[in-house]
Amino acid sequence: MRTIILTGAVSLVVAMFGTPLAIRLLRSRGYGQLIREVGPKHQTKRGTPTMGGTVIVVAALVGYVVGHAATHNQMSTSGVLVLGLMTGLGLVGFIDDFIKIYRQTSLGLRSGAKLAGQAVVGAVFALEVLQHPDGYDMTPADAHISFLRDVGPAIGTLPFVIWIVIMIAGFSNGVNLTDGLDGLATGATVLVLAAYVLIGIWEERNDCTIALSPVCYQVRDPLDLAVVASAVLGACFGFLWWNAPPAKIFMGDTGSLALGGVLAGLAVCTKTQLLLVILGGLFVIITLSVVIQVGFFKMTGRRVFKMAPLQHHFELQGWAETTIVIRFWLVSGLCIALGLGIFYAAWLQT
User: Fold this and answer.
1) Residue 238's domain spans which residues?
2) Closest C-alpha to 236, from 252, 264, 259, 257
3) What's the pLDDT tens digit per position in 254-300?
4) Are the CB atoms for 59 and 234 separated by under 8 Å?
5) Domain count, the chain
6) Does some domain include residue 67?
7) How many CB atoms lie within 10 A of CB 59?
8) Residue at 296 is within a domain
9) Tens-place pLDDT, residues 76-104
10) Cα dist. 180→39, 110, 120, 153 in Å?
């Protein structure tokens, strides 16, 4: 527990005081956000420094290392793999952001190239979590689909890798689509990460390697996964201080892809893959709004929403940006309450 608290605190401090330094550095180099001409009028945000997600990634990694060093706790394979997934996807996003700045356009990597980068990073992660057994012959994950625990028979290595790649790409792009208003994606991610701190602690208290019982969890390194969630949570908190409306810095694809990846990684290693669909319900809703908009337009030539993703529809309806952000945070909170309620209720009924 001390490691969880210390890690989160260190990450928060690094992000809180590191973000202003990043703002000055990015401004000095002219690394500002370019704004699309279509849709809601955000031209006042033109030139706001972007690629701030780099601060989140660095702060989380520093917090994780310092927290373990200070408490003399050993880093786990599961924790390192999830942070590796976050860093790899952050690198894909960084390349995308850099291309946008270099070309002075709102479009970076082609969609196919970005998806390929996500697929490669995701496939490496999926293969690695099936390796590295511990003293109990438990690997960070196994080839199952999971909800609150593993469900059904093993699906085999190749289908598992494909499923995890789809999941990682879906949530990293979901956070990316949500990152359209100041603080929206960061705040919603904070709430989901807080849920995973609680899930990791609960799974540790009821770990099958400690006390075998009908309601125990066969999850490797659950407490260290809570430490990972705390590290990224603290980094997001510190960054949100500067990213809240009106934002002084944007996370860019560097941050959104990294955060979506860490959520997916935590879900895989805590064996709550499908539960993440509920916990991250806001990201799912916003992603579905884009799918519905594009699909309906291709079929009928008409639009369901004034603009997708969904937050921009409400902007064009006349809602203030801060109103949308706070109400969407509330929606995210409700999704998390539902997800945690299902998680706890299932434990009681087992």
Assistant:
1) 2-139+148-278
2) 259
3) 999 999 999 999 999 999 999 999 999 999 999 999 999 999 989 89
4) yes
5) 1
6) yes
7) 28
8) no
9) 999 999 999 999 999 999 998 888 777 76
10) 11, 19, 26, 40
